[in-house]
Structures
1.
Amino acid sequence: MDLDARGAVESMVEFYDKCGEGMDGMVHERERKVIRKLRDMDVPEDPAAAVGQFMERTFQDVEADARERGAPIFEVARVFQEEKFKAVDFIFPHFFLLPLVSAMSSYRIRPLTPETCLFEIWSLVLRPEGEEYDTPTEPTILPYDSQDFPEIPRQDYSNLPIQQLGLHNLDEFRLAKDVEGTISNYQRLIDGYLAGLDKDLLIPAHHVVNSGYDSPIMDIGFGPTKGCVPPDSEHAANYMQAAE
């Protein structure tokens, strides 16, 4: 459905509200309060330009709010200019960060058996130094289909058993080389560990594999390289800064 500029901004406000619902680490309630105030901001008539202006104000105002309460926030505008934006950061072997500005969700997935895993969700927020807060002492363990999960993970988890069954019915499948590379990069690095490769090969491969979840299939220094993006190519440069 086509939206005018005002409708596009409203849809973004609703989107961030939904992302933070029950998951304050992904979009914290403080951030959501700041974002809701932007509903009535003056925007250009073009919907795309309106969303761009809304996003710029979102980052500015959330950063300003964090600084006002003494949280150790970074310079958002400068980081967005210098770093490729990644909606999800992946850290080998099983850790994901889903950030907005002053808060994020963290996912850690640990295998238990060939068919099961422990999927941990943590809500993280930047806090002023010395601020008092209650520290959780024990995680809450829930089955994958629990209605106690927030809406977004509840929807995601509901697909997992079906996906697992589907994978058992595939002999092979093809990845999109530009946006599904993390799967291939990850599996080849695992193969390197299973093969007992030297750490001088494995450590640089970590820097390649640690990236946004939508990274290309890349040459990690060993294993099959046909069709891989070279680590020093322009396409891959943003994924290699940590290794330079």
2.
Amino acid sequence: MDHQFSRMELLIGPEKLKKLQQARVAVFGVGGVGGYAVEALARSGIGALDLIDHDKVSLTNLNRQIYALHSTIGKYKVDVAKERVLDINPLAQVNIYHTFYLPETAEQFDFACYDYIVDAIDTVSGKLMLVQQAKKAATPVISSMGAGNKMDPSAFMVADISETSVCPLARVMRRELKKRGISSLKVVYSREKPLTPQTYENETIVGTPQIKGTRRQLPGSAAFVPSVAGLLIAGEVIRDLL
């Protein structure tokens, strides 16, 4: 009998589809990268999704984020994401958190209850704590490295953090994780050298929150770059769960 996941079932079979439907995945950050990861996970049949993000949709998100529309500007990204996921799969369980994930807020989450964790946040301090919590709970985690200031989607690849090169964020993460006794982490990163974003006199960016731990220099971004990173992440999550 046909159902909404019939085409997925043709690839993996009913038992593995059931496994996906019983899985619980947490996605930290539902912006340019995380939003597309959530989209693909929902369409792949993941039964429970925990979505964590503090931000609201802003005008400058429209060029690249799947949840960003003129009709959603000003709404919390996780609220919009939950509505869309349930429209894709009404049987999904979606838990949302209007939380900016940092070491100060890390204790709100029990990583042992997840089958997989996606790190799609921007701050180094938050990423490091997230990976540490995941490793402590023995929960699989995949981390997105820098997707900003890039124009070549074909340069993305999946690798262990120890095998990365070129990416400045991966370099920092590799060094800081080593200090914490963590030598292995699955990541999606780009081998493209970051471009230098243009700046304009008297430029004002609307909708950018000033929160402790956020990056001060705004990166440039294209529609076809973070989306690829997000879809690669979703693919790795599905394959690892199976």
